[in-house]
Design goal:
mainly alpha
């Protein structure tokens, strides 16, 4: 099932749509926590604090949108309140692990340097993905005249991507070559995640 079709199917069913919003909220929250974990003990940039704060706000915003469907749905991040919970939990964690392994081989960094490099490259990959995912979702929401909107997230994610590119330019002159390799890793994990969601919502008795 093509991604656009998958989202159209998700949006048609209230409970599934709530789980989708909750899944996105979980991912934004996990991303914010990973950014915070990558902080240097003392040398934390303003931009890194800004990113963590905005990702946390996205998690909150998406969670709050669920109330427009049904305030009683998806109050936690328990497995039964997420779409494809195993794949969802593994996605960012696996990207982090594989990216760190790649970056260590590419740059031979110490522990703190590796944490910062992981923040730059993993966040870049996630922002590239967000720039693809959220506009497709918003188009479907608009077409369906949904009360739910993600336009504010789209604007902030676009700003994040520009900021990540600026930081990556400072980190390494040949960052794009390495970022492209991280994007290949991310695409494989993203495809696994989407396939897991597709398999779940395509079950005959799923609603």
């Amino acid at each position: 099932m093509e991604f656009h079709q998958l989202l159209e199917r998700i949006v048609q069913h209230s409970t599934t749509h709530a789980k989708w919003l909750n899944t996105l909220s979980f991912m934004e929250n996990a991303g914010a926590r990973k950014i915070s974990k990558c902080e240097h003990p003392v040398s934390v940039s303003l931009i890194q604090l800004k990113h963590a704060a905005e990702e946390h706000r996205h998690a909150y915003y998406l969670k709050k949108q669920i109330g427009k469907i049904d305030p009683e749905l998806c109050k936690t991040y328990k497995a039964e309140e997420l779409l494809a919970p195993v794949a969802t939990r593994q996605y960012l964690h696996s990207l982090d692990v594989k990216a760190c392994r790649y970056l260590q081989n590419a740059f031979n960094l110490d522990k703190e340097e590796l944490k910062y490099a992981a923040y730059l490259f993993v966040t870049y990959a996630i922002e590239v993905r967000a720039d693809e995912l959220y506009p497709v979702y918003q188009d479907i929401l608009t077409k369906e005249s949904s009360k739910i909107m993600v336009k504010s997230i789209i604007l902030e994610e676009e700003g994040h991507l520009e900021e990540m590119i600026s930081q990556l330019n400072e980190f390494s002159g040949d960052w794009q070559q390495h970022a492209d390799n991280i994007l290949i890793i991310e695409k494989e994990l993203h495809d696994q995640w989407i396939n897991a969601i597709t398999n779940e919502v395509s079950q005959p008795d799923y609603a």
